[in-house]
C-alpha cells in the first residue's frame, strides 16, 4: 500500500520507510549489499509528480502556411511534431532518472544512520511510522462517488441522478462525480480524498443500514438518511469485506440479558432497509451488530 501511494505522508517519511526496508532486508549498509529497484522501495508516482506536465498545445504560428502548402507540408509538419515529442519524452526520461538517483541517494544516507538496528527493530519502526496515519489497518478501494441522495426520495433511479450533497457539515463533498478512496476498517467505513490523511467522512457500522450492488460496477451504501452510490471495479471485494467485518462485529457483541416473559412475544418488526422488500443485491447487517 505504501508503494501504491495509499499511505498519505511526506516524502521525508517515505524515504525513511525505504531506508528501514533496506535495513530489514540487508542489515547494515554495505556497498556490496543487493539493491532493490527504486520502485520496490519508493512510490513511483511521487517521482512522476515532480516532472512538468507535457505540453499539449500545438504551435499555431505556421498553421496558415501548412494549409496553403497542402498535404506535403502537412506531412512534414507531422514529422516535425513527432520529432518534438520524441525529444520531449527523452528529456522527461532523463529528468526522471535524475530524480530517481537523487531520491535513492537520500534513502541510502538514511539507511547508513540505521547501522546496528536489527531486523525486528527495523520492522517495528516501519510499522510505527505507518500507524501514524489514522487510516492504518483499512483496506482502500478506488471509487467514483456518483451521488449522495436522501433516503426514500424516488429510489434507485432517482439516486443515480441526484446532485451530490454534503456528507457532513465538517467535511463537505462538492458537486459532481469524485474520485475517492473508500476505506473499510474493522470499526468504520471512511471516505478519503486521495492523498489526504484525514477522511472526508467516517461511518461506524452502527450507522449503516444496508449495502449492495445493482450491477458489476455500481455499489450502494445506505447510511442513516442517505444513500451513497459508487462506481468501482471491485464491487464484490467491497461487499465481501463488509460482510466479514459485520459478521465479526456481531460475534463480538455480548448477548443482551433476557427479561422474564410476561405474555406472548411481541412480533418481530420488519427490517428497515433500502426498500420495503429487500432485493437480491442487498445485504443487511447481522442481527445485533448495528446497534449503538
TrEMBL record:
Question: What segment(s) does the record annotate as region Disordered?
Answer: 250-292
FERM domain sequence ranges: 1-256
Q: Which InterPro entries match?
A: Actin_motor_Myosin (IPR051724), FERM/acyl-CoA-bd_prot_sf (IPR014352), FERM_2 (IPR035963), FERM_central (IPR019748), FERM_domain (IPR000299), IRS_PTB (IPR002404), PH-like_dom_sf (IPR011993)
Query: Where does the record place Pro residues bias?
Result: 262-273
Q: What SUPFAM superfamilies does the entry give?
A: PH domain-like, Second domain of FERM
Top-rank taxon: Eukaryota
A Pfam family annotated for this chain is FERM_M
Q: What is the protein name for this chain? A: MYO10 protein
Organism equals Chionis minor
Taxonomy of the source species: Eukaryota, Metazoa, Chordata, Craniata, Vertebrata
* Protein's gene: Myo10_1
